[in-house]
């Protein structure tokens, strides 16, 4: 049997994170070797609690959860928490009982460094929240960027408006300094921006199908989806919700679902465009040295097979 791709999910659950975690657990192509937590949709403490809860729902308490950073990398910025998208508990205001399990003693950063060095080149880190933990791992251990197989991240708005403001997407806005460290680190990076995820919509009709199925993950998700759907109806007037995190997980599971281009990405860290991701496509040779010169390239997704992604999401959640 071919070796399964090992993945660590860095997550801030979050309704679409819950979907993504369940999808990963339902994907025979990958082995989830751990979850690391971060603030974003909720504060880090609640992210850890929700990660443990979701693994208990899935019957996968064998998978360790390592708690991540409570602060941005500069420790200077006020956190922006998107509880208006996911509910104050991050999971659709369902007031689930606290999980029985606990996070491991090791921090998220130490866990990322240890696991990638145990399996050099074999671990894919799927980053679904702000990039603080990943940037801290890069800073703490120069070998991390060589040891990690690939970092597949949900972040950025490439040639489209952001979702926090016209400039910035939420995960990059959450810690722009960390994001710039990650994008310029030299690691193998695949960025899935909202230019991609806004093409992947779970419709009201899809949700009805999930509700009618007997899949245990489908049933659980239908309980928590209300707040996420209401937010999308109000903010975007869409008849459905964007599948940000599920699309990112599936891009890691099956890279043929997307196409990408390569170039240098820098992140604006100050001013009114703080959190802007700017991709240099190398079409112009600039006479002068720029902030993009001599930086390693990354992969940025440019197309997605949206019907195939939605079908995989539906099939894997209903057959659970
Ligand atoms: O309008 C929004 N503001 C803030 N965060 C959002 C919004 N929509 C979605 N997300 C959250 O941020 C990530 C994608 O940018 C996703 O994790 C999503 O749940």
Automatic annotation (TrEMBL):
* UniProt keyword list: Cytoplasm, Glycosidase, Hydrolase
Q: Which reaction does it catalyse?
A: uridine + H2O = D-ribose + uracil; inosine + H2O = hypoxanthine + D-ribose; xanthosine + H2O = D-ribose + xanthine
GO annotations under biological process? purine nucleoside catabolic process; ribonucleoside catabolic process
Q: Where is the signal peptide?
A: none
* A single GO molecular function term of this UniProt record: uridine nucleosidase activity
Per the record's keyword annotation, is Cytoplasm included, yes or no?
Answer: yes
One GO CC term on file = cytosol
Q: What is its EC number?
A: 3.2.2.2, 3.2.2.3
Subcellular localization, as worded in the UniProt entry: Cytoplasm
Which segments constitute the Inosine/uridine-preferring nucleoside hydrolase domain? 7-310
- Supply the InterPro entries for this chain: Inosine/uridine_hydrolase_dom, IUNH, Ribo_hydro-like
SUPFAM superfamilies registered for this protein in UniProt: Nucleoside hydrolase (SSF53590)
The entry sums up its family as follows: Belongs to the IUNH family.
In its UniProt entry, what is this protein called?
Inosine nucleosidase
The organism is Sesamum indicum (Oriental sesame)
Q: What does UniProt list as this organism's lineage?
A: Eukaryota, Viridiplantae, Streptophyta, Embryophyta, Tracheophyta
Gene (UniProt): LOC105158827
């Amino acid at each position: 049997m071919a070796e399964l791709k090992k993945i660590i999910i860095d997550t801030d659950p979050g309704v679409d994170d819950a979907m993504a975690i369940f999808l990963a657990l339902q994907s025979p192509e990958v082995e989830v070797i751990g979850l690391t937590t971060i603030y974003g949709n909720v504060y880090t403490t609640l992210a850890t609690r929700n990660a443990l809860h979701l693994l208990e729902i899935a019957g996968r308490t064998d998978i360790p959860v390592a708690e991540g950073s409570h602060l941005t990398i500069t420790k200077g910025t006020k956190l922006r928490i998107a509880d208006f998208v996911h509910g104050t508990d991050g999971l659709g205001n369902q007031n689930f009982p606290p999980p029985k399990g606990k996070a491991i003693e090791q921090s998220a950063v130490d866990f990322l460094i240890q696991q990638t060095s145990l399996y050099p080149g074999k671990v894919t880190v799927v980053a679904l929240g702000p990039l603080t933990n990943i940037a801290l791992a890069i800073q703490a251990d120069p070998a991390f960027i060589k040891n990690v197989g690939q970092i597949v991240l949900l972040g950025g708005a490439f040639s489209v408006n952001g979702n926090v403001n016209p400039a910035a997407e939420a995960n990059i806005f959450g810690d722009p300094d960390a994001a710039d460290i990650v994008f310029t680190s030299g690691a193998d990076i695949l960025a899935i921006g909202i230019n991609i995820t806004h093409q992947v919509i779970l419709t009201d009709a899809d949700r009805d199908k999930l509700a009618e199925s007997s899949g245990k993950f489908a049933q659980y998700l239908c309980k928590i989806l209300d707040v996420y759907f209401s937010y999308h109806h109000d903010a975007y007037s869409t008849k459905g919700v964007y599948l940000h995190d599920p699309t990112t997980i599936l891009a890691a599971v099956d890279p043929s679902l997307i196409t990408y281009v390569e170039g240098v990405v820098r992140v604006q860290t100050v001013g009114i465009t703080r959190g802007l991701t700017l991709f240099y496509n190398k079409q112009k040779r600039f006479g002068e040295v720029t902030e993009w010169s001599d930086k390693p390239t990354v992969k940025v997704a440019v197309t997605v097979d949206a019907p195939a992604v939605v079908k995989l999401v539906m099939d894997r959640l209903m057959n659970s």
